[in-house]
Design goal:
2 strands, alpha+beta, 104 residues, 21% helix, extended, single chain
Length: 104
């Protein structure tokens, strides 16, 4: 397990930095995984960086989304995906409200 962690950690620090790796007791507190006491967190946690994802069936999901929403299949299509760190600025969303309870 230590060798696997070391290999993944070395990979996360090279090239495009597509992911980060944490041991279960070092997962960032803001993710609220409960540190090492949470039985749902594995020994290692890989976190994809913005623009990257882990998926064995992404191509099929992208084809489905293109068909469902009437888009042509192109390499520059943009797809949404959940599960990113909410501290990433592009994950922040605007709040647009309307109604009698909201005054300008």
């Amino acid at each position: 397990m230590i060798e696997l962690y070391s290999d993944l950690e070395a990979g996360s620090l090279q090239g495009n930095k597509l992911f980060r790796i944490f041991t279960h007791d070092r997962v960032p507190a803001q993710w609220r995984y409960g540190g090492g006491s949470n039985g749902r967190v594995g020994t290692m946690v890989l976190a994809a960086e913005e623009g990257a994802l882990f998926s064995r069936d992404f191509v099929e999901l992208a084809r489905f989304a293109d068909k469902e929403f009437g888009r042509k299949q192109k390499l520059d299509n943009v797809y949404g995906w959940n599960g990113y760190d909410n501290q990433v600025p592009r994950m922040h969303t605007p709040l647009i409200v309307r109604g009698p309870s909201f005054k300008v």
